[in-house]
Specification:
This protein has 300 residues and is an all-alpha fold. It has 15 helices and no strands. Helix 5 (91-122) crosses helix 9, helix 5 (91-122) packs antiparallel against helix 12 (215-230) and helix 10 (189-197) runs antiparallel to helix 11 (202-213). The longest helix has 38 residues, at 20-57. It is flat, with a radius of gyration of 27 Å.
């Protein structure tokens, strides 16, 4: 009875009137939140809109794709676009080549970045600062600058139109090494000291102590590397010269130019084949990507 009486008393007690400043502050706060939500909706539409148009156009007839005003949903689902996209070029070979080069290339690049970052943080060696300055300088060099030297080296080695020619030149990543180095700098010194006391060597410290703590950033670097290699167009175009070694991005261009006219439905279907694996990987790893990009602070 006492509790019920107290609740009833609180319910009937008039709330103090808000001052004009408080009302103005709440109104300004509500306006800011409203504008923020509007901005988020606009950005979301701008980002999701092209993806929706891609998926819907891959199921449209040629008439629906070319119609104006645009048809936002196909009048008839044209599933044959996917079959035509797969048969217009040796898409099976392209898919296998992309899987092989992306998986092996990403594995080598991430492993290289992990070892490089660990060395810069936890190992003392001569010219360490100078070599790190070179690493930072490498971040500022556009990839197209190294295209011709890389091709000349691959050509001298006889690796043109081979898997090693596709993979090895991209097996190092200054960006990934820099990100992992900055993250490893934030690790508590007590973790490494405890591992040293237990008699752990560098490899054991790396795989038993450093990597488990750095997992979000490692996954972030992995996804960035994977997407970059999966979507790479210029280098596979330069270093391969037969359909048996081409990758998916080149296959898209081949499908677009394989007929006298452009069948945009088939092109959109082929694009879905290329984009879908990357989207699946992103949705699986997105929480690790956010954690990796927000993990820790830069430590000098």
């Amino acid at each position: 009875m006492t509790v019920t009486t107290e609740k009833a008393a609180r319910a009937t007690t008039p709330r103090p009137a808000l001052s004009q400043d408080d009302r103005r502050h709440r109104l300004a706060h509500g306006s800011r939140r409203f504008l923020l939500y509007v901005a988020l909706v606009v950005v979301g539409v701008l980002m999701v809109g092209p993806l929706y148009w891609l998926l819907s156009s891959s199921l449209k007839t040629a008439g629906d794709i070319r119609s104006f005003p645009p048809v936002w949903w196909p009048h008839k689902l044209e599933w044959g676009n996917y079959r035509e996209a797969w048969q217009s070029a040796p898409f099976g070979n392209f898919f296998v080549n992309s899987l092989i080069t992306t998986f092996i290339g990403t594995t080598l690049e991430v492993l290289n970045a992990i070892l490089t970052a660990y060395a810069f943080v936890f190992i003392r060696f001569p010219a360490k600062r100078f070599l790190f300055a070179l690493l930072l300088a490498a971040l500022m060099v556009p990839g197209h600058v190294t295209l011709l030297p890389s091709y000349l080296i691959v050509s001298e080695l006889g690796w043109v139109n081979t898997y090693q020619g596709l993979i090895i030149p991209g097996a190092a990543s200054a960006f990934g090494a820099f990100l992992l180095r900055q993250q490893m700098l934030t690790l508590p010194d007590e973790l490494i000291d405890a591992a040293k006391v237990d008699g752990a060597g560098h490899l054991r410290r790396l795989f038993k102590v450093v990597l488990p703590v750095s997992r979000p950033m490692v996954i972030t670097v992995t996804v960035v590397s994977l997407v970059s290699k999966w979507n790479d167009f210029i280098w596979p175009l330069v270093v391969t010269n037969t359909d048996s070694m081409r990758t998916l991005p080149i296959g898209l261009v081949m499908i677009k130019s394989s007929e006298g006219y452009v069948n945009w439905g088939a092109v959109m279907g082929a694009t879905v084949f290329v984009v879908l694996p990357v989207l699946i990987v992103f949705f699986i790893a997105q929480r690790y990507i956010v954690a990796g990009l927000t993990q820790g602070a830069v430590k000098g």
